[in-house]
Amino acid sequence: MLTKYTKYIIHQQWMSSALELAKVAGDAGEVPVGAVIIDSTGKLLAQGENRKERDKDPTAHAEILAIKRAATTLQNWHLNECTLYVTLEPCPMCAGAIVQARLGLLVYGVDDTKTGAIRTVINIPDSAASNHRLQVIGGVLESACREQLQAWFATRRRSVN
């Protein structure tokens, strides 16, 4: 049985992987958000980074891409034994997909005060409309996730002016 401390270290390691993917997205001109999904044994199933601009697709969020890839890998849309790590609190679209996929655990880095749909602005997983009770851990590597986003947006604002 894993201790609480060991679980936290594991969460930090996977969030670090998501941060690396977010950097790839940011370097490509995308909002820097990265996501990884692991199975119940701790094996990496899928990953994704924001690709809206590159793919010209409004649904190409890191979470959506990772969920699609995990479902394909498992040949099953039920991801109830899986954990999703994402650097930014999911938006309403992604929160809906997470609930529909029946993910077992969501771990995210930083709250999204504009569109966060897990705990910050609205709470889709705990709403009456949700048919799945999602376990959530927020704030893993929060400072690093926040700093990455803030630095990216600051650079974008400077380049526009």
UniProtKB/TrEMBL annotation:
PANTHER family referenced in this protein's UniProt entry, alphabetically: CYTOSINE DEAMINASE FAMILY MEMBER, TRNA-SPECIFIC ADENOSINE DEAMINASE
Record's subunit section: Homodimer.
InterPro entries per record: APOBEC/CMP_deaminase_Zn-bd, CMP_dCMP_dom, Cytidine_deaminase-like, MafB19-deam, tRNA_aden_deaminase
Gene: tadA
Task performed by this protein: Catalyzes the deamination of adenosine to inosine at the wobble position 34 of tRNA(Arg2).
Record-level GO BP terms: tRNA wobble adenosine to inosine editing
Gene3D superfamilies per record: Cytidine Deaminase, domain 2
CDD domains xrefs: nucleoside_deaminase
Cofactor descriptive note: Binds 1 zinc ion per subunit.
Family from the record: Belongs to the cytidine and deoxycytidylate deaminase family. ADAT2 subfamily.
GO molecular function: tRNA-specific adenosine-34 deaminase activity; zinc ion binding
Signal peptide coordinates: none
Protein name as annotated: tRNA-specific adenosine deaminase
